[in-house]
Amino acid sequence: MVQDGATPVASYPFVSREPLEPPAEWAQLRRTCPVSRVTLPSGDEMALVTRYDDVRRVLSDPRFPRPTGEDSARVAATESGGLFRSAMAQAIPQVGEAHLRWRRMITKWFTAKRMAALRPGIEAMADQLVDGMVAAGAPADLKAHLGFPLPVWVICDMLGVPESDRDRFSYWSDSMLNLTRSTQAEMDAAQDEFVEYLRGHVAAKRAAPGDDLLSDLITGTDSDGGTLSEPTLVATGQGLLVAGHETTANMIAKMVAMLLSDRSRWERLLADPSLVRTTVEEALRFDADPGIGMPRHLTEDLDVGGTTVPGGTTVMCSMGAANRDDEAFADAGEMDLGRSPNPHLAFGAGPHSCLGQALARTELQVVLAVLLRRLPALRLAVDPARLQRVEGLAVGGLRELPVRW
Amino acid sequence: MKVLLDQDSCVASGQCVMAAPDVFDQRDEDGIAVLLDDTPGADAADGVRQAAAICPALAIAVQD
Fold first, then answer.
1. Residue A4, domain member (yes or no)
2. Which parts of the sequence belong to the 4Fe-4S ferredoxin-type domain (chain B) (predicted)?
3. Interface pTM (ipTM) of the complex?
């Protein structure tokens, strides 16, 4: 590694002084130390990678799985190390043909055609949630009224989870994404409840399959004629609920905050709503607080931008830092609503890139279009510098987004 | 323009279909991209280059 033993190892994740600005370390490390040692809340060390080309290469390398095993570094400040070492992560095939077969059973639910079919329903949900926010009156928290519920409604629909159970997922999901908030006992209890719930749900779907993703996974076979085991089905349901929920929910609020904190951006969109699609991509690229990144466990030595990182190392890929790399994006520090093409890494890259990315894009596009249509006078109800970040989770976000209209 | 698509590395993001719907489609059974036209005309060129640039798996190559 680049640093010698005398250099103090930085604590990770970094802290930013401004809620909508990236931590100063991103630019520093890209320039001076593209592979740097950091200490996670667990106390374990990882190698942090911050340059676009390096992040893309590590994420795209099919040899390297997520750090699920005992010999890899942990992220969370609990005994088990949190998300990536959970039973859920271990029940899903990580590499090679098995991973590919598993993934391809699910990706058919996220095609462009399916998204086009889902769009009117998502728009109706967004309109209904905006109705609720308007009825509550200004100022209102856009995250609580719209950003948070919408992705939960959508993913619960896709998984065939009844409306009455939606609220329980927030708690389970938070505890799975824990870094420093919950104790091991709290995480274990939430995990047990979540698994118990999904076992019951899988059993109910097995008895009476519906027209939903989970029923399809239960009754379907992969390209090899294989079926998914009970633990893999439960883990897949968990993964989709957690991933389909918190990340997009936070991104909705962060996107709107970015657009309203410099209101000329919002006005440009009002004048030209055809920019919605590129604006969503740019908000994903520009996100100053996307979370800790994606870890990979190196099963053998790897050259990263001229540095040999030894096998056995856990590498943390900072997609957020990579997305601000001037070597990859012209005026990387500027938010350009018309930027195109925009090959950002917000959804990762390569064989493990986010399988729900088309759904996330659709939700973000729909929310933005609905807000522009319904609430053109939308503005922040607080000084942007007073927005507060969510802390202690693997995903980044704002605690609330107070708005008027 | 000649378009090459590596289906083995495709991750089914659907980005190519959004960028160039006349050139790319996705298989219903797994979302993997398929080429509808491997020698598209000039009117599709921008969309195809866009698709190649934003593919998360870099599974699309373009030869002029």
1. no
2. 1-29
3. 0.97
